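Sequence of Nuclear pore complex protein Nup85 (Aegilops tauschii subsp. strangulata).
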Amino acid sequence: VVEVNLGVGAGNGSAEVEEEVDEAEMRRIEYGSVPAFALLQSRKNALADAAAMQHMHSVSEHAEWWQYVLEYSKTIGNLLGNQDSLPALMIEDPRAILKVREKPTSLKAAWELLEIFYVDKELHSWLPERLVDWLADYDSLLTKTDGTVYFKLNNFQKKLINLQIVENDDDYWNGLSAALSVGWLDVVVNMLRFHGSYQLGQMDNRETENGLVEAVAVLVSTMPRMRPDLPKGKLGQCCKTRPDFIKAWEKWRGQVSKLECSAFWIQCSHQKTRDGLKNLLHIMMGNIKDLTAATSHWLELFASHFLYIRPFTVV
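Predicted 3D structure, token representation.
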């Protein structure tokens, strides 16, 4: 049994102010949930009668029961709000790290977490990726003094406008490590492209350095991911079966190790770039010390552990 603190925060490193659920909205949710609950109870009673006739000990032994519970959970989840909704006709800033979303609510976050661990039995084969998705939506609600991944990225976003050379800033590399540790691959690749070696006037003088940055970006963007599908705009190599995932992972991890041992690092004169990129490689190689340093909340560390240390685990 573990505890997840969700809610309004204040001060340095605390959670983002969440979108409050007012009385009218709560009444809408309560009234809207009644038909769904009545349908679930009706189905439960029908299955209970069937279980008694078939000498089963409980309704939960019926495969249909968990499908009914999942349908109920999805219905309630929709009543609690759509976390993917974005403003219409929004023009995305190429230097934006975090996408603009509706502010999350603790109610929706807690409901989805319960669904992940207790309701959706089909999720167990790709639990790590489901946690990645959950953190992308609700990491801003996790309270922690030292700051979550969201907090680090949000802070860096605020100072990015005044930075001329991002690779000289420690928060840039800390944000990259934090985002990679929880599998936010699109964020990592986007931030790597902020690196000064990509500027037209720098390409010739920093060719080796830029080559290393790009090599890491390619590895991040091709990381194998065990999940049914990849949403639009999300990076990674989607593997739908366990054998395909294991094969792709072993090949990819070998490429990561090969780059980590490359002789080109000696030719990289910018120390922060060299150290920062090496740290990203160590995270992809499952170095527990670097993963622990990059995360601050147990859910973040939990997700990173499954992603990089025990990727083949079936819950």
